[in-house]
Amino acid sequence: MPHSPLSFKLITFFYLLLTLSGASLATVGHHRRPRFSPHNYRDALAKSILFFQGQRSGKLPPSQKMAWRKDSGLFDGSTMNVDLVGGYYDAGDNVKFGFPMAFSTTMLSWSVVEFGGVMRDELNNAKEAIRWATDYLLKATALPDTVFVQVGDANKDHVCWERPEDMDTPRTVLKIDRNSPGSEVAAETAAALASASLVFRRSDPSYSKLLIKRAIRVFEFGDKYRGSYSNGLKDFVCPFYCSFSGYQDELLWGAAWLHRATKNGSYLNYIQENGQILGGGELDNTFGWDNKHVGARILLSKAFLIQNVKSLRDYKGHSDNFICSLVPGAPFSSARYTPGGLLYKMGDSNMQYVTSTSFLLLTYAKYLTSAHTTAHCAGRTITPNALRAIAQKQIDYLLGENPLKMSYMVGYGGRYPRRIHHRGSSLPSIAEHPAKIDCSSGFSAMDSDSPNPNVLVGAVVGGPDQNDGFPDERSDYEQSEPSTYINAPLVGSLAYFAHSFGQL
């Protein structure tokens, strides 16, 4: 029988009370590991990475484990005489959107940069997931002052329900260039390439150098020709992935990653000169595929905390303000939580903010621990362990510690979403149904109450509503659709907890 909302609030209150007072929770290399492990984080980690195989576009390799998926999009780019085969479908559709794909790549890479050292057997799988993206992003940025930012017509794709292996909707190719700029996509792509260069620095130095060289060039293009891709490409990218936060946050984010990857002082100068202009409002506390302000602040706080770059001192304060907004009962706390304790930002794909915020909490806790310091909220001290406790509460909720006792990761636990909003998962596989399923025929499966025939292992869906409700209906894309940018930051968090609880 599920706990009542009141009992969940009490549990959350006492849990945070203990951690805010300094009670111990495990941290890599700094504290004792707890004896009790509430979840199999290692299993969840493996599945969170495997999910990306289900989102692959292009020619699938012999090592493909998600066997119900087959080759797709093999002629992508041909209409523009370029090779754009590969990459990832962003969610449950068959379009390759460059903006969220680049962000997912950055977050996968950041996961490995911070926590790859404890991933063990899963490290190579994570690297493979990153490389599938960066190989594509290298193709998309092969021409100077040009980034190919989308393959597929989303408006026409969204009136069909068909497998990616069958898709016959237009594979329209969209690009940004000098005449039609898109600074947010260019800078995010630069961030993805720069962060990935750190992932491959030791294991594949030549690939790493190629990535950083391309990142530098793409960032220069995005910075020199400023403008939002939502203007020039509005009819194609809106309302799907419009840039509502503007491009300033991506320029700061991209510069921060280039500074970290290159150690080149020119990027530090760029940040110092442009930080206030690009930094946005301090109360802007949403981090996701569109808004990078908080991520940039946390990333830049490391340079101050650990490398003692005094000119970046303000980013420690900005990061503390973000933390203060999340801690229930702390001064300036503004975050909303469901009765069951889940961070709640918005109804559409809320779980993306849960996973991205949890990752930032763990990463900032790592930086604070390394610097032997804490966060401060109007005179109140918030310890790194308190941040880890909040993050663990969120991850545990996602994995099943919630009023419905449901895991929101497909294939994890005994009860999880069975009717996810995902074309390939909901339609019979090529092996089961070799004949083509055309555009409109697939809607019989979309409208069915039957569970999806193909299990998209590791997929995390949009999640419950503000009252912890989840109908598990395929038509409810806001709650039932998975995406790469939900999973990408989750990889780092699961690696941390798997190690902390002695599972890795």
From TrEMBL:
- List the Pfam families hit by this protein, alphabetically: Glyco_hydro_9
**Biological processes, Gene Ontology terms:** cellulose catabolic process
Where is the catalytic site?
421, 472, 481
**Annotated EC:** 3.2.1.4
Signal peptide location in the record? 1-26
* Chemical reaction(s) catalysed: Endohydrolysis of (1->4)-beta-D-glucosidic linkages in cellulose, lichenin and cereal beta-D-glucans
Q: Which GO terms describe its molecular function?
A: cellulase activity
Top enzyme class: hydrolase
Q: List residues of the Glycoside hydrolase family domain.
A: 41-493
Q: Which UniProt keywords apply?
A: Carbohydrate metabolism, Cellulose degradation, Glycosidase, Hydrolase, Polysaccharide degradation, Signal
Q: State the family named in the UniProt similarity comment for this chain.
A: Belongs to the glycosyl hydrolase 9 (cellulase E) family.
- This one is known as Endoglucanase
Source species, please?
Cucurbita moschata (Winter crookneck squash)
